[in-house]
């Protein structure tokens, strides 16, 4: 696996396994448990050493599936990221949330613990103090945020003695700087993170399959580099400084395809073409 290492020596894989919808949406779904456990195991064997989850996913059942899948692997070689939901950002709630996640995951620590989304109704100061406590108690190793603007990142960092190492955001070839409530990803958030040694963890790298279904420059580059359109889209993301991505799949062939997006590169000219590419009709 390709790793990204920031100036503060934080090392992180370029591609992770995103477990959203594995084990259910916002409610637990048990009907595909065996298949999904096997998919997680296979992903790890293929090199997906980083697994992204959240207490929201499957109402916690996603964590239980991950716990079952990783039990026969060396935990020290697997990076787990989880998230506390925005309704649980009061001091005591953050700590309780983390403890419950640890129980479901059957592990002593979470590698990176993120605030899933900002909540203007709960003071961020108390939230960050709770995150500091979790680091002190060795329940988590690193802290991060998700869906935070530059101003929100600055405010959160002001109240924590531990560095924010990750901001997880929606960003891909299609969604660049505005999508509903998501704004300024390319123009402000990513440059700020790159300047401040914060890893940008992007989700929906092929935009729910849209990039695969649309005729575009991706077809030309796919033929030129003998790679799939998904691999071109993912490689474009991870070519950027401290940008990584978390594709989601339980399909073994897709897992292989996604991990085939690393260890090769496109020319500067082709990367520039993709930088300038716009899907105005989306």
Domain unit count? 1
Q: Please name the fourth-level CATH homologous superfamily.
A: NADP-dependent oxidoreductase domain
Order of helices and strands: EEEHEHEHEHEHEEEHEHHHEHH
Mean pLDDT: 94
**Poorly predicted runs:** none
Radius of gyration: 18 Å
Tally of contiguous helical segments: 11
- The quaternary structure here is single chain
DSSP E strands, number: 12
Largest sheet: 8 strands, parallel
Category from helices, strands and their pairing: alpha/beta
Summarize the structure in short.
This protein has 282 residues and is of the alpha/beta class.
Textual characterization of the structure:
This protein is of the alpha/beta class and 282 residues long. The chain has one domain: NADP-dependent oxidoreductase domain (TIM Barrel), CATH 3.20.20.100. The chain is 39% helix and 18% strand. It has eleven helices and twelve strands. It has an eight-stranded parallel sheet with strand order 3-4-5-6-7-8-11-12, with helices on one face. Strands 1-2 form a two-stranded antiparallel sheet. It is globular and about 55 Å long. The mean pLDDT is 94.
What are the main properties of this structure?
single chain; 282 residues; alpha/beta; TIM Barrel; 8-stranded parallel sheet; globular
Structural topology:
Blueprint: E1 3-5, E2 11-13, E3 17-18, H1 33-46, E4 50-52, H2 61-70, E5 79-84, H3 91-105, E6 110-115, H4 124-136, E7 140-146, H5 150-158, E8 164-170, E9 178-179, E10 182-183, H6 185-195, E11 199-203, H7 210-213, H8 217-225, H9 229-238, E12 243-246, H10 252-259, H11 268-275
Helix pairs in contact: 1-2, 1-10, 3-4, 4-5, 8-9
